[in-house]
C-alpha cells in the first residue's frame, strides 16, 4: 500500500512516499515559507504518486480535537503566516485521500513504537531537544491528546544553583525549553552547542536539566521507553549523563522492581535514525486510512 507522509517543521517540510511496513521509497524537501508558496509545491509532489492515505506530523501548536471547527489547523504559532491555517484540510481537499494529523513528536513516537526503539511498548515518550523542546507521548497503546496535546517542553524545573541564565522561553523564561534548548545554550554561552563540544560544564548543566525532565516524565507518564533526540542530543556523551542525573533526581523513590534494570536500554536514541518523524507520519496516514476505509477491507 502506498502512503504519503509529511514531517512539517518550522524550517523545512519533508515529504515522502512509503508503505505500511515503514519503508521509504522517495522523498522531497521544501523550505517552510508561507502556505501560499509552500503547500502547492507539496501537493504537486504527492498528486501523481497514487497514495491511498497521507499522514502529517506537524509543528505546533495544532488543533487535534476532532470535534473542533479548527481540527487539523496549526493554531497560535509564532510563525505568523501559518497561524490558524487549515493544514490537514488543504491536503484532504486536494488529494481526496484520508489524512492523519498529529504533532511532529507524536508522529515520531508512533514511528518508533511501530518500527523502532519502542517496538512493542504500550507506553513510550519521544523527546526532542532542538530549537524547541517537544514531547510526544504514546500511552496505553494510543497517542496522547487530551485537553490539547502534551507540551512537555514547557515544564518547570529546579534551577541549578550556579546557573545565572534567566532562560529564553518567551512565555516562561526558565522552563525546560528556556533552559536546555539549542537557543538556550547559545543564549547562556554566546556560542552554538556544536562549537562547545569540548566544554564539559556545558553538557553537565544540560544533562542536569534534561535528566531532571526525564525523572519528571518517569514519575508522571510511567513510560516503558524514553527516546531522546534533536540537534542537541547529537552530543552523544549527554545520553549517559542524562541517565545518571535522572536516577539521582529520583533518589531511590521508585521501587527496584519498577526501575529499568539497564538505563542504557531505557533512555535511548531513535532506532530509525533521522526518520522517526517521517515514518511516523506515514503511520498516521495508515491509521487514518483504517479509520475511514477499514470497514471496507
Ligand atoms: P529543529 O529543532 O529546528 O527541528 P534540530 O533538532 O536540528 O532542529 O535542532 C537545532 C538546534 O540544535 C540548534 O539550536 C542547534 O544549535 C542545536 N544543535 C545542532 N547540532 C548540534 C550539535 N552537534 N551539538 C549541540 N547542539 C546542536
Ligand atoms: Zn516555556
Automatic annotation (TrEMBL):
Cofactor requirement: Mg(2+)
Catalytic activity field: D-fructose + ATP = D-fructose 6-phosphate + ADP + H(+)
Enzyme class: transferase
Keyword Iron-sulfur: no
Enzyme Commission code(s) on record: 2.7.1.4
Keyword annotations: ATP-binding, Carbohydrate metabolism, Kinase, Magnesium, Metal-binding, Nucleotide-binding, Transferase, Zinc
Superkingdom of origin: Bacteria
Coiled coil: none
PANTHER family in UniProt: FRUCTOKINASE, TRANSCRIPTIONAL REPRESSOR MPRA
Protein name as it appears in the record: fructokinase
Amino acid at each position: 500500500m502506498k502512503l504519503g507522509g509529511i514531517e512539517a517543521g518550522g524550517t523545512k517540510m519533508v515529504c515522502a512516499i512509503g508503505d505500511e511496513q515503514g519503508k521509504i521509497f522517495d522523498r522531497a524537501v521544501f523550505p517552510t515559507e508561507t502556505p501560499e508558496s509552500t503547500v502547492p509545491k507539496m501537493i504537486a509532489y504527492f498528486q501523481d504518486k497514487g497514495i491511498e492515505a497521507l499522514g502529517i506530523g506537524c509543528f505546533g501548536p495544532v488543533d487535534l480535537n476532532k470535534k473542533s471547527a479548527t481540527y487539523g489547523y496549526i493554531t497560535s504559532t509564532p510563525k505568523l503566516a501559518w497561524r490558524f491555517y487549515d493544514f490537514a484540510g488543504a491536503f484532504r481537499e486536494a488529494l481526496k485521500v484520508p489524512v492523519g494529523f498529529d504533532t511532529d513528536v507524536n508522529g515520531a513516537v508512533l514511528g518508533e513504537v511501530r518500527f523502532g526503539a519502542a517496538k512493542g511498548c504500550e507506553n513510550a515518550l519521544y523527546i526532542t531537544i532542538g530549537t524547541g523542546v517537544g514531547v510526544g507521548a504514546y500511552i496505553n497503546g494510543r497517542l496522547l491528546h487530551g485537553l490539547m496535546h502534551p507540551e512537555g517542553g514547557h515544564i518547570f524545573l529546579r534551577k541549578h544553583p550556579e546557573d545565572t541564565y534567566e532562560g529564553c522561553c518567551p512565555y516562561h523564561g526558565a522552563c525546560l525549553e528556556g533552559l536546555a534548548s539549542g537557543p538556550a545554550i547559545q543564549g547562556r554561552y554566546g556560542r552554538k552547542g556544536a562549537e562547545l563540544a569540548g566544554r564539559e560544564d556545558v553538557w553537565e548543566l544540560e544533562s542536569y536539566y534534561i535528566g531532571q525532565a526525564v525523572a519528571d516524565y518517569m514519575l508522571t507518564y510511567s513510560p516503558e521507553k524514553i527516546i531522546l533526540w534533536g540537534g542537541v542530543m547529537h552530543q552523544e556523551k549527554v545520553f549517559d549523563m542524562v541517565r545518571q542525573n535522572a536516577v539521582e533526581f529520583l533518589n531511590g523513590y521508585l521501587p527496584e522492581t519498577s526501575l529499568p534494570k539497564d538505563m542504557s536500554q531505557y533512555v535511548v536514541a531513535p532506532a530509525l535514525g533521522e526518520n522517526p518523524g517521517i515514518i511516523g507520519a506515514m503511520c498516521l496516514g495508515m491509521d487514518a486510512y483504517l479509520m475511514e476505509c477499514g470497514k471496507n477491507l
